[in-house]
């Protein structure tokens, strides 16, 4: 057994709800073969088992909706077959009947209901304990449950009905108690802040041993608290939590040397990881891969090429491809040079090295047809192993199993992936703190410290640093030699650093960033005016045969070939997007129909 959430064990514990008492003595007899709340919640072992069901509920990928949430932003084109698509999230035409919206809502409330059972019974059991170790252990369990209840409510608050959703702080014991009205957004925020604060104060900064690998920590609570305050533009308060994560040695957090460790199966739970959800292909093979009880995910197929078992549910948008392709490397850094044969193009005859095709961040984020330095599936180069047809000029590497299999079809059972979803990592915290230090682009006082944080993230990937030559922590590195203002640095964070470092990661990071900055409509309008075209690229296939990858090399501008295809993204989103209609999801119609008290 390899891994799942924590303890490497899956416990499929359903919600335990009190039944209605019967007057008939015979019917009131306890069935010894069935669990009840009275017979189950007896001690900390039961609490820990119940907590496992909370962790297991949170791994439901409907909570994160990685594909749909990025279609809502400026990250992706929804699948193949340009120029037409019917995807309602990309077109900004979704409504309260969408399956993804309904499933997200339901999955979050499952976590909340399960967490409430642990919290309620944990508090009850604590009152019966006299042993301090038992009390402390129960408190840690409760703190984990409150973290998951809190983060579930942050997701509901940020995504649904302008933050106004039903609050459950108890275990319903009758059908009527499931029908709660919506609470005000301010009450919802106060509720989840209290949960996350409790978790922050009562969870350890780290857990001992592999047996606890994957348990949430006070660092995860600090990150979610800081993010919540940042989203409300409460920069000073947010910075308190971000600084704690970065400077507190008990957390032991540091940027990993290789950015790919943040995306690969081999690099899971590394020193940069703050919150990630664990998956495995080693269990529940009998389930449909899309079953919500599965412990694997299907994201490997979502982003990989069609000939390699992929669905191409989301391919990188044109602007994102070009931004990655144009990333400047630090040519003083030896990591940006690879060995070459004397006399080959770009080869230095003295060192027998040449510059990389693309930056390390670009190569480990995207598969590009002309990247001749970073292997893809089966150890072959991207242009060798996939044809880049159907007007597809790039694929996301994140979430795909390119490093371990020849094709997604090779994974057994199929349509599964064991790669973890990284929700929060240290680089994200660095960039959020940088935004706080410049107060969202209005304060020059923290500019140098903010630049230093951004450059730590860039230096990790051997990118050209930003700022004046000879400054900062790496004065000998290549810089862009620009004297940034706070506003200019904010623009860099908005349109370069955060999207390129964190593409497809976290929970709706890009959408929520663009919405909170108030630029989403304008962003769609600006991007809809940009044009691109695909030039042909000649390479060799896996057999060494010379082949042409037609239209695979994306170039910005109007297609110079008469009648040639020109790419335009977000034309309909620019027209359709409305903050009032699409800034938040509506409460799903299934809830509206079922809950008579929703608006009472």
TrEMBL record:
Top-rank lineage group of the source organism: Bacteria
Major subcellular site: membrane
One Pfam assignment: SusD-like_3
Domain spans labelled RagB/SusD: 381-599
Position of the signal peptide: 1-23
Domain SusD-like N-terminal as annotated: residue spans: 25-230
Keywords, comma-separated and alphabetical: Cell outer membrane, Membrane, Signal
Compartments (UniProt record): Cell outer membrane
GO CC list: cell outer membrane
Family: Belongs to the SusD family.
Protein name: Starch-binding associating with outer membrane
Species this protein is from: Cellulophaga baltica
């Amino acid at each position: 057994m390899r891994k799942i959430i924590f303890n490497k064990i899956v416990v499929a514990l359903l919600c335990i709800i009190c039944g209605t008492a019967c007057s008939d003595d015979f019917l009131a007899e306890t069935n010894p073969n069935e669990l009840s709340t009275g017979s189950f919640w007896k001690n900390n072992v039961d609490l820990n088992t119940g907590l496992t069901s909370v962790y297991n509920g949170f791994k439901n990928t409907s909570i994160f909706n990685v594909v749909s949430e990025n279609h809502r932003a400026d990250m992706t084109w929804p699948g193949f077959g340009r120029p037409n698509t019917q995807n309602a999230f990309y077109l900004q035409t979704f409504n309260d009947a969408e399956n993804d919206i309904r499933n997200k809502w339901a999955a979050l409330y499952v976590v909340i209901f399960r967490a409430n059972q642990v919290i309620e019974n944990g508090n009850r059991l604590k009152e019966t304990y006299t042993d301090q170790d038992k009390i402390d252990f129960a408190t840690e369990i409760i703190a984990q449950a409150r973290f998951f209840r809190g983060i579930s409510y942050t997701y509901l608050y940020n995504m649904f009905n302008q933050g106004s959703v039903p609050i459950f702080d108890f275990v319903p014991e009758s059908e009527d108690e499931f029908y709660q009205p919506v609470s005000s957004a301010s009450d919802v925020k106060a509720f989840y802040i209290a949960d996350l604060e409790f978790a922050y104060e009562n969870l350890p900064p780290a857990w001992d041993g592999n047996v606890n690998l994957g348990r949430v920590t006070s660092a995860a609570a600090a990150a979610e608290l800081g993010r919540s305050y940042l989203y409300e533009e409460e920069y000073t308060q947010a910075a308190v939590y971000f600084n704690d994560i970065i400077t507190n040695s008990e957390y032991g957090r540091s940027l990993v040397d290789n950015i790919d460790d943040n995306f690969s199966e081999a690099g899971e739970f590394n020193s940069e990881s703050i919150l990630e959800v664990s998956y495995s292909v080693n269990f529940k093979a009998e389930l449909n891969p899309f079953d919500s009880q599965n412990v694997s995910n299907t994201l490997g197929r979502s982003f990989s090429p069609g000939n390699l078992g992929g669905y191409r549910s989301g391919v990188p948008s044109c602007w994102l491809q070009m931004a990655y392709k144009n990333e400047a490397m630090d040519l003083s850094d030896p990591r940006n040079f690879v060995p070459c044969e004397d006399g080959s193009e770009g080869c230095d005859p003295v060192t027998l090295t040449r510059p990389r095709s693309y930056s390390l961040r670009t190569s480990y984020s995207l598969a590009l047809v002309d990247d001749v330095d970073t292997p893809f599936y089966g150890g072959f180069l991207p242009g060798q192993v996939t044809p880049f047809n159907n007007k597809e000029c790039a694929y996301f590497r994140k979430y795909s199993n390119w490093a371990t299999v020849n094709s997604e079809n090779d994974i057994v059972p199929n349509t599964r992936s064991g790669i973890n979803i990284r929700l929060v990592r240290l680089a994200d915290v660095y960039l959020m703190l940088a935004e706080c230090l410049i107060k969202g682009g209005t304060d020059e006082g923290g500019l140098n410290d903010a630049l230093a944080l951004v450059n730590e993230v860039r230096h990790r990937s051997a990118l050209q640093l930003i700022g004046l030559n000879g400054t900062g922590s790496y004065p000998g590195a290549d810089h862009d030699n620009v004297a940034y203002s706070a506003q200019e640095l904010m623009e860099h964070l908005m349109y370069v650093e955060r999207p390129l470092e964190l593409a497809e990661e976290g929970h709706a990071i890009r959408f929520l960033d663009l919405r909170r900055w108030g630029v989403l409509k304008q962003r769609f309008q600006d991007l809809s005016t940009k044009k691109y075209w695909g030039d042909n690229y000649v390479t060799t296939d896996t057999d060494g045969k010379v082949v042409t990858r037609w239209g695979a090399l994306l170039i910005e501008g109007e297609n110079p070939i008469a009648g040639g295809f020109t790419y335009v993204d977000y034309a309909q989103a620019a027209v359709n997007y409305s903050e009032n209609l699409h800034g938040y999801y509506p409460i799903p119609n299934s809830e509206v129909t079922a809950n008579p008290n929703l608006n009472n």
